[in-house]
Amino acid sequence: LEGLCSFLQLSTCPEHLLVRFCGWLLALTPDLSYASAAILAEQLFLKRVLSLTQPPSRHLMAALASFCSKYSQPFCRVLVAAVLREPGEGAEQTKLVCELVEECLEPDSVRLVLSQVLEVPLSEKVLPVVQAVLGRQEVLPPELFDLLVLTLCRQAPAFATSLNSASLNYAKLVTAVLTMYHSQVS
């Protein structure tokens, strides 16, 4: 499949054709396997998303949204994980992930994104993603909620030393957790 994607130059095809291609993928029966969907997510979107320096085009957003509608788990495992691991600010990538969390992903995938975020140190880059996940007001499994609270507690000293925007965002995040999950916080 990787060879076919390379032969078809899918990673560099024009974005308006990417929308059409994703439409064809959604029409396939039976559905793609998890592994095939993960390869396609990487080949179709990874390079494009990691190279964003401005907001994505409407064509790219349409293609991402359509792919996520059917293959959100492999998409999150490939693309969201790569965005979180990418060094640097990644402002456009973070905004994109937040938009997908808020508008496109199913509840299981939203929880997957949160678990991926909690695997990396909290930073100014990932705080908005956690905020977007909490904004969905999904019920979190106890183990994921406990990990969220533990991560927030462990990371508190890093955000308590200064009064920058990251510290403010961290404080907003803690307030959101306390407000939304007050019955589970002791």
Would you mind describing this structure in some detail?
The protein is mainly alpha-helical and 186 residues long. It has one domain (1-181): Alpha Horseshoe (Serine Threonine Protein Phosphatase 5, Tetratricopeptide repeat). It has helices spanning 2-8, 15-27, 34-50, 58-85, 91-103, 107-117, 127-135, 142-160, 165-180. Helix 3 packs across helix 4 (58-85) and helix 5 (91-103) runs parallel beside helix 7 (127-135). It is elongated.
Output the CATH class name: Mainly Alpha
Q: Strand tally, please? A: 0
Low-pLDDT parts are: none
CATH fold description? Serine Threonine Protein Phosphatase 5, Tetratricopeptide repeat
Mean pLDDT: 88
Which range does the strand content fall in?
under 5%
Estimated helix fraction: over 70%
Largest sheet: none
Structural class: mainly alpha
Helix-strand sequence: HHHHHHHHH
Q: Outline, from the CA principal axes?
A: elongated
CATH architecture annotation name:
Alpha Horseshoe
Total domain units: 1
Termini Cα gap? 50 Å
